[in-house]
Amino acid sequence: MTLNDGVEPPGGRRDRRPVVALGLALVLLVASAAMAAVGMLGPAPWQSGSPWAAPGDARGVPFTGFGQYGGMMGGPDAHLGWGGYGGMMGGPYGSGTGSDMGGMMGGHVWLAGDGRRVDSIAQARARAAQAGAPKELEAGEVMQFTNGFYVELKGADGDPTTEVLVDPASGAVQTEYGPAMMWNTGTRTGALTEQQAREAAAAWLSSNRSSESVKSITAYPGYFTIDTAAGGTMVGMLSVNATTGAVWYHTWHGAFIAMEDA
Question: Shortest CA distance to 231 belongs to which of 249, 215, 216?
């Protein structure tokens, strides 16, 4: 006869240790999941240094998202931004030959890599043009950095629509990390004017990268992207949210090499 036959074990009680152990395991699993969620989400919107913090934030530090440094999501002190290079998503810009998400959370892949290296601005422009063609978008400004290529995509009306990255290792094209993923609203109804965006960018640079200054500005749906220069030489770029004025420096490109407009 077994316990299942209704007879209690000696002492009149069933052995509940397996049930208790299972319960503890479930509690630990839930706690681990909660801690992982907190780590991925980074600082809350109301915390200093969060991605939604305005330039007046006491710390003056932009959220840089997924990064090689500062854990999986980086958080306010991350240095490489979404994906970094050679981190979660492979290749300098991490797009590899992956799926629609370009790795775990790399953003939309417009064109999967074909395994052929992209070493010139002309090649990067061709890949971006091929990626944008189904949506009737054309490649505009192209920049080459040590980590890969940045390309502006324009609509039929000539207005900039979004920004993409071309992975030099594979030729894959994906939405640029940061503002292009998070802030592109699809409409140009932001509260900030171009001049106000310039001023927000200049104030942030003065506090965080004093050697750089505002060079040029381009309006995208929901945000502005600004090229920065030092001593008249192009250095990098940042974006300003058209609604909140938050500033997001593009830390993932590496050093500037060259650029060419359409």
Answer: 215
